[in-house]
Amino acid sequence: MWLVAEYLELWRIEVPFKAGIAAILVALGVIIDLVSIAAFRRARTTVTPLAPEKASQLVVTGLYRISRNPMYLGLLLILTGAMVWLGSGANVFILASFVAYITAFQIKPEEERLERIFGSQYQAYTRRVRRWL
């Protein structure tokens, strides 16, 4: 994101109060991530998205009632804060690429494994709660 902001000056945008807005977005992203991780810890199940087959319980409470992927949402908010801080509109493409990449190569495969593990319970959850927001 820094390289894009540095070399694509044509896309530079001035955001009033950018330091404050960026700080709020980053802080919100970190809080969402920490709260999401805490929900997994309370449920005594794996936090790592690289091994969903190790999940012992489906977490559907707290932020997981609003989003099936609040940890990725938190990361997106952190990146959005960086975009605001850097003042580069071109970084919107990086944010969109992040969402597309995470959805295709992390979330969808993870969802397939969770459906195999939790079956109809997971299917009902996906009907109730959206993937991102």
Could you give a quick summary of the protein structure above?
The chain is mainly alpha-helical.
Question: What are the salient characteristics of this protein?
Answer:
133 residues; mainly alpha; elongated; 4 helices
Textual characterization of the structure:
With 133 residues, the chain is mostly helical. It has one domain. It is built from 4 helices and no strands. The protein has helices spanning 2-7, 18-42, 70-86, 91-128. Helix 2 runs antiparallel to helix 3 and helix 3 packs antiparallel against helix 4. The longest helix is centred in the last third of the chain and has 38 residues, at 91-128. It is elongated, with a radius of gyration of 17 Å. It starts with a helix and ends in a 5-residue tail after the last helix. The model has no long low-confidence stretch (mean pLDDT 94).
